[in-house]
Design goal:
Length: 169
């Protein structure tokens, strides 16, 4: 830790946290060397300090030296708690449709927005009978169609994430 951080930072960390975690020990040399680094840890502090402490230390050093400029120094992609996907579904001419475009949405007698996590838990469920009431059966049909669309979107998200991670190797 002393080789990577300014003594002020190292002393602060030791006083507040004691010893670094194994994830921090592994990540900090990579981050300090300027390498793209994917960090996974069971706690927020484990990930956040792994990702940020090197940069906080470097920025503090630039500030102390009077060399800190008003420019971009870091891009950080926040850790995911869960993937999320959203779809719209609706009844148009008595037919359940997925991902309504504007004309379909405008003509839908029933319209729903569904947002779910990768565990298929609801984040948001919003629906209304725009022009008509709807039955339990129609609601079940729209929910099933929405779940199908969300599963497809989540699969596409995972595929894109894995493809992106493969380029980091």
């Amino acid at each position: 830790m002393k080789k990577i951080f300014d003594p002020i930072t190292a002393e602060w960390f030791g006083r507040v946290y004691g010893k670094p975690t194994s994830v921090q020990d592994a990540a900090w040399p990579q981050i300090a060397a300027g390498k793209d680094t994917l960090v996974s840890a069971p706690t927020g502090t484990g990930k956040t300090l792994s990702a940020f402490l090197v940069f906080i230390d470097r920025l503090a050093g630039l500030a102390r030296a009077g060399k800190l400029k008003p420019e971009l120094y870091l891009i950080y992609v926040s850790p995911l708690k869960s993937l999320v996907a959203a779809v719209s579904v609706g009844m148009v001419d008595g037919v359940p449709l997925l991902d309504l475009n504007y004309p379909e949405d405008k003509d839908a007698t029933v319209d729903m927005n569904i947002v779910m996590t990768e565990a298929m838990e609801f984040v948001e469920l919003q629906g209304s009978g725009e022009e008509a009431v709807f039955t339990d059966g129609e609601l079940a049909s729209l929910l099933a169609l929405g779940r199908k669309g969300i599963a497809e979107l989540l699969a596409a998200q995972l595929k894109a994430i894995h493809a992106g991670l493969a380029t980091l190797s």
